[in-house]
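Try this one yourself first.
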């Protein structure tokens, strides 16, 4: 069963960390892929210069103005889709960017979409393996990067622009937000990734120690020739 809409009808900084450990399930003609959310970012509309809704409603951001529980998908850098869960009461635009997750169902399909070979999953080895005097680096789980970052997450789940406006809480929706295992611990927090404005606000939340969390990258201004 999808998440109750009342769970999302609150201030974005309270709702965002609650999404950690929830599941996003996406079903297409190819099959179903499910991701457990491990990293998110909060965007607080008119109170947040980093938000798409900071300067008011436009055709692009209209879905952010509610009600909560709908999917806001946008195209960025001319090549990537990113997706957000709309939260808060209607008329107060706020959304949570889904930054990263672990694929827990439909791994083979996610691999195919991400261009990774359909091979058996290699166990993550935390200990270095020594052969003689030379220590080898530990092998990383090859599936760690399937949805490690907002664009990769969309690709793995098969979510594109036509997903914008999907009701994530409808029982018959092809894209659903499900309770999942949740996360009861204390999330890590830090600045949001790649922002030019309000970059210092620690509104990114992630599950500490989870290998699928994306690396932090600050905004780097483009240099003019």
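Now uncover the answer:
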């Amino acid at each position: 069963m999808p998440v109750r809409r009342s769970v999302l009808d609150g201030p974005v900084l309270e709702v965002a960390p609650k999404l950690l450990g929830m599941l996003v399930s996406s079903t297409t003609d190819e099959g179903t892929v499910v991701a457990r959310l491990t990293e998110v970012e909060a965007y607080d509309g008119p109170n947040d210069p980093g938000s798409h809704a900071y300067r008011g409603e436009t055709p692009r951001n209209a879905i952010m103005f509610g009600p909560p529980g709908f999917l806001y998908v946008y195209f960025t850098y001319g090549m990537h889709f990113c997706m957000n869960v709309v939260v808060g009461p209607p008329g107060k635009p706020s959304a949570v960017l889904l930054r990263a997750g672990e694929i827990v169902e439909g791994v083979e399909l996610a691999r195919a979409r991400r261009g990774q070979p359909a091979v058996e999953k290699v166990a993550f080895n935390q200990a270095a393996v020594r052969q003689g005097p030379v220590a080898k680096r530990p092998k990383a789980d090859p599936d760690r990067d399937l949805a490690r970052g907002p664009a990769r997450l969309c690709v793995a789940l098969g979510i594109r622009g036509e997903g914008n406006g999907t009701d994530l809480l409808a029982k018959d929706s092809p894209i659903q937000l499900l309770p999942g295992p949740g996360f009861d611990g204390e999330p890590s927090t830090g600045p949001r990734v790649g922002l030019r404005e309000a970059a210092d606000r620690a509104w990114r939340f992630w599950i500490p120690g989870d290998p699928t969390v994306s690396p932090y990258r600050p905004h780097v201004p483009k240099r003019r020739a």
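Discussion: Strands lie at 23-28, 31-43, 71-76, 80-87, 94-105, 129-131, 134-136, 175-178, 188-190, 204-206. Residues 150-157 form the longest helix (8 residues).
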